[in-house]
């Protein structure tokens, strides 16, 4: 629907200038002489020798006049004209040309009665009978063969339409082309039958002019009808290129078919026969009358169906706006103005002017239709996207996303170029701009060559980038080929970034060179700029240099767990300038290499889990040692045992703590597995210590009241809060929490030592 509206607007808004272009070419034929004199002149001009001699003489006069004008222009002094005078002269010239055009049209319109009278005189009974005798059998044969074959092919067309309902637009287009090919074959067979009948009935086996005119007109008319039916497809809606309803397609198809038959048989058959049988002026009058009838018929159809067409094109419920309603209600006005201008041209110009106008309009309509078709196909591809097979997606996971990021944008550019091409065709055909002349000129060819070269370079660059990125993804994909190591992942990521920068720089230089720029000074300037940046951005240079040496030494790879700059986490991204780390809490850190003084990598060859196990002083060391060995044996027998590289390394009693003795041991693991192994081992050792009654010290306190040398604790003296013998409150102690070891006495909040209660608690 959008493509159809765009095509209609392009055709009728821009083609309106055709009327003016043809109107300004020449004035209508003024009949200031008698009919006999004009006929004599026409007959003289029909002689090729006379026409050639006249053209040579007129050419000499024109050349001499042009030379004289050139000499006088060269001798005349150059004068400057002010802006105001230039505007006044331009306005005056436009007004004079407009007045002359109106006068010519008025003269042509005033001569229409004479044209109609001459056209009426063309109805000659004898001539009509001669034509019917000459063409009767040929007409019967051609149309007999044509209608018979059309009747036989109707079922085939219906079957093609039923098949098209089950497929998309591309298959439907191919089926439509097949249907058109069938119609074209039918026309060719009918024309061949007509030629065969003509030659068979001819006494000397020669095809006369009248029969040849009819057969040529028959072929042109039928081919034109095929093109009209290809666009509208009134009988087979499934093959219709436009989204018109069936009734509208039938109405438009009927109007086009009738107009084609009148114009085709009238100008290609009737007018030439009248020119030969009556006179050229009479034939021109008949041609003018037929052209007027066709244009008036088009105006009648426009005025009759304008509301229905507007409602169909612009009254979509989902896209209705006030602006669209107003524009849609006025769309028929420029079309009517175009038809009125066309009517004025065909009424005041010679009879043959309609065919060039229709040819120009037909080319514009065909260009708009083809452009609409291309735009529709591109829009469908853009909306649906690019889908790759599952096997390709498994090998290249990001290839489909990358193609969908590039191809739709390229198709959008192509769609804009198609629209620009149609506009250029319209401007060239209407005479508004000499596009074809500019294209064939040296400048135009050079510009088009540059555009084509740059386009090829950009496409080739994108193809190289997509292929290289896909290869990197394939190498990084662990499901195919060898599993990449961390070093390979790091180097391939850096290589992809470096390749992208180099490819972009090379492409930019080539494109600038194709555009005509001298890239030598540009490269030198880039070198100087690089030195300036190097001095001005020393920190960045330090980042790059440090990053290069870090990569040479293989200190960091993607996926490693490292500590740099006081931050510990997993490496997610590595460039020449910085390293990106995500810590245990999910925070993403970007650390430039210039701030890195020390790199601690936990992922090189192997790792250790060091266990410092604290037990109480009262426990037997041998029991704790045996429990730790038993915990290792149980750990090694579990699923985590595959990550253990060696036997349990016992170091012994490591330190004496404040409340515990520390037993140290170590487990050798795969790199990066030490934390998981440690958590699993701690879980097992806690369970075994609990089962065997081995105390694991923890922060606690013991309240000590003190005792004498005989082991007796002193009494706790309490005083009643009142003189009445009220019940004594329960004693409350608020004690500061202190570490379990190293304190001989407890401290209370009031600074006094706690005493035992009277009942000995």
From TrEMBL:
Principal location class: membrane
Top-level taxonomy: Bacteria, Pseudomonadati, Pseudomonadota, Alphaproteobacteria, Rhodobacterales
Subcellular location: Cell membrane
UniProt similarity note: Belongs to the MscS (TC 1.A.23) family.
Signal sequence region: 1-23
Gene it is expressed from: ybiO
Domain of life where this protein originates: Bacteria
Domain Mechanosensitive ion channel MscS per the UniProt entry, residue ranges: 540-602
Protein name per Swiss-Prot or TrEMBL: Moderate conductance mechanosensitive channel YbiO
GO molecular function: mechanosensitive monoatomic ion channel activity
CC annotations in GO: plasma membrane
InterPro entries reported for this sequence: LSM_dom_sf (IPR010920), MS_channel_1st (IPR049142), MS_channel_C (IPR049278), MscS_beta-dom_sf (IPR023408), MscS_channel_2nd (IPR006685), MscS_channel_C_sf (IPR011066), MscS_channel_TM-2 (IPR011014), YbiO-like_TM1 (IPR057485)
Mechanosensitive ion channel MscS C-terminal domain boundaries: 610-696
UniProt keyword Transmembrane helix present: yes
Membrane topology: Multi-pass membrane protein
Transmembrane spans: 134-153, 173-201, 213-232, 252-274, 280-303, 329-347, 353-378, 412-433, 445-472, 493-513, 519-537
The Mechanosensitive ion channel transmembrane helices 2/3 domain, residue ranges: 498-538
Moderate conductance mechanosensitive channel YbiO-like transmembrane helix domain residues: 361-438
């Amino acid at each position: 629907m959008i493509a159809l509206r765009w095509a209609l607007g392009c055709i009728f808004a821009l083609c309106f200038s055709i009327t003016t272009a043809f109107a300004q070419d020449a004035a209508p034929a003024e009949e200031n002489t008698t009919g006999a004199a004009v006929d004599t002149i026409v007959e003289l001009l029909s002689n090729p020798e006379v026409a050639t001699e006249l053209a040579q003489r007129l050419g000499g006069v024109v050349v001499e006049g042009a030379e004289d004008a050139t000499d006088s222009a060269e001798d005349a002094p150059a004068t400057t004209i002010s802006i105001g005078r230039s505007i006044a002269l331009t306005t005056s010239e436009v007004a004079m040309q407009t007045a002359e055009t109106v006068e010519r049209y008025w003269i042509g319109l005033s001569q229409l009665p004479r044209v109609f009278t001459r056209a009426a005189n063309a109805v000659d009974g004898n001539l009509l009978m001669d034509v019917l005798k000459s063409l009767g059998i040929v007409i019967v044969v051609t149309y007999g063969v044509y209608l018979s074959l059309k009747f036989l092919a109707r079922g085939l067309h219906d079957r093609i339409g039923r098949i098209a309902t089950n497929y998309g637009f591309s298959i439907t287009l191919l089926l439509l082309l097949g249907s058109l090919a069938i119609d074209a074959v039918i026309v060719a067979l009918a024309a061949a039958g007509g030629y065969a009948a003509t030659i068979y009935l001819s006494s000397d086996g020669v095809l006369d002019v009248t029969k040849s005119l009819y057969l040529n007109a028959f072929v042109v008319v039928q081919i034109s009808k095929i093109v009209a039916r290809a666009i509208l497809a009134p009988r087979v809606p499934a093959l219709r290129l436009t989204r018109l309803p069936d009734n509208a397609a039938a109405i438009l198809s009927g109007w086009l078919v009738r107009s084609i038959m009148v114009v085709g048989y009238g100008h290609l058959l009737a007018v030439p026969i009248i020119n030969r049988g009556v006179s050229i002026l009479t034939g021109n009058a008949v041609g003018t009358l037929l052209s007027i009838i066709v244009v008036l018929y088009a105006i009648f159809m426009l005025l009759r169906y304008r509301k229905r067409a507007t409602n169909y094109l612009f009254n979509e419920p989902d896209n209705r706006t006030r602006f669209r309603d107003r524009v849609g209600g006025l769309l028929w006005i420029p079309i009517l103005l175009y038809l009125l201008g066309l009517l004025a041209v065909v009424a005041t110009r010679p009879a043959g002017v309609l065919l060039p106008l229709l040819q120009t309009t037909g080319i514009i309509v065909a260009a708009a239709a083809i452009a609409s078709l291309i735009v529709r196909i591109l829009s469908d591809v853009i909306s649906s996207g690019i889908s790759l097979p599952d096997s390709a997606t498994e090998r290249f996971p990001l290839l489909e996303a990358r193609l969908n990021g590039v191809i739709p944008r390229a198709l959008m550019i192509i769609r804009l170029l198609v629209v620009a091409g149609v506009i250029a065709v319209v401007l060239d055909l209407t005479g508004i701009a000499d596009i074809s002349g500019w294209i064939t000129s040296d400048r135009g060819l050079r510009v088009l060559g540059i555009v084509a070269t740059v386009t090829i370079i950009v496409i080739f660059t994108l193809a190289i980038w997509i292929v290289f990125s896909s290869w990197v993804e394939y190498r990084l994909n662990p499901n195919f080929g060898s599993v990449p190591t961390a070093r390979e992942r790091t180097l391939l990521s850096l290589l992809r970034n470096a390749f992208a920068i180099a490819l972009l720089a090379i492409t930019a230089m080539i494109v600038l060179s194709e555009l005509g720029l001298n890239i030598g000074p540009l490269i030198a300037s880039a070198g100087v700029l690089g030195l300036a940046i190097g001095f001005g951005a020393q920190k960045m240079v330090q980042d790059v240099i440090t990053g290069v040496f870090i990569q040479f030494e293989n200190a960091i790879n993607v996926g490693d767990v490292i500590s740099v700059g006081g931050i510990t986490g997993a490496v997610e991204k590595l460039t020449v300038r910085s390293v990106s780390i995500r810590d245990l809490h999910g925070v993403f850190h970007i650390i430039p290499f210039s701030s890195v003084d020390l790199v601690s990598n936990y992922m090189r060859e192997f790792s250790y889990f060091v266990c410092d196990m604290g037990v109480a002083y009262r426990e037997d060391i041998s029991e704790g040692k045996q429990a730790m060995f038993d915990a290792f044996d149980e750990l090694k027998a579990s699923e985590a045992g595959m990550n253990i590289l060696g036997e349990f390394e016992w170091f012994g009693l490591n330190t004496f703590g404040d409340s515990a003795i520390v037993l140290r041991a170590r487990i050798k693991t795969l790199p990066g597995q030490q934390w998981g192994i440690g958590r699993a081992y701690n879980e097992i050792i806690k369970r075994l210590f609990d089962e065997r009654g081995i105390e694991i010290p923890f922060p606690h306190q013991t309240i000590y009241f003190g005792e004498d040398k005989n082991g007796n604790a002193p009494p706790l003296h309490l005083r009643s809060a009142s003189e009445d013998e009220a019940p004594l409150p329960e004693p409350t102690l608020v004690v500061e929490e202190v570490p379990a070891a190293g304190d001989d006495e407890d401290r209370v909040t009031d600074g006094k030592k706690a005493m035992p209660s009277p009942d000995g608690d």
